[in-house]
Amino acid sequence: MTARPSPGDLLVVDGRASVQFAGERALTFRVVSVSDQPTYAGWIWLTGYVLNRRGEAIDKREIYVQLAGLWPATSASIPRRTSATHPRDPVGRHKVRRSTPLGLR
To answer: Tens digits of per-residue pLDDT, 1-24?
Structure first.
């Protein structure tokens, strides 16, 4: 990627962007902001959220990466949550029903 990322962009951050993200340390990153702080040519500071395989934000981070090493993530690889299939309040979804009270077993 040679263009500056924008807030909302979904990126793959791996060893091509910075050695600290090589191999198993690669991540999917949702950009929240792009710093205007001066850096070395071709490098950039990004703030955003690390996403898990279900597309849920699991950590907020500020990362320093090479623009040329960033790749757009496909939206198919990170499914979006919907309230119909993933309620925010799952209380009661997994209740265990017992036919006899615990003390009578």
So the answer is: 778 999 999 999 999 999 999 999
Cα–Cα distances (Å) from 23 to 62, 100, 105, in that order, read 19, 51, 52
* Number of residues in the chain: 105
Question: CA 28 to CA 96: how far, in whole Å?
Answer: 36
DSSP track, the chain: --SPP-TT-EEEE-TTT-GGG-GGG-EEEEEEEE-----STTEEEEEEEEE-TTS-EEEEEEEEEEGGG-EEPPGGGSPPP-TTTS-S--TTTTPPP-SS-GGG-
Distance CA 72, CA 78 (A): 12
The pTM score is 0.69
**Cβ burial, residue 84 (10 Å; 0-12/13-18/19+):** exposed
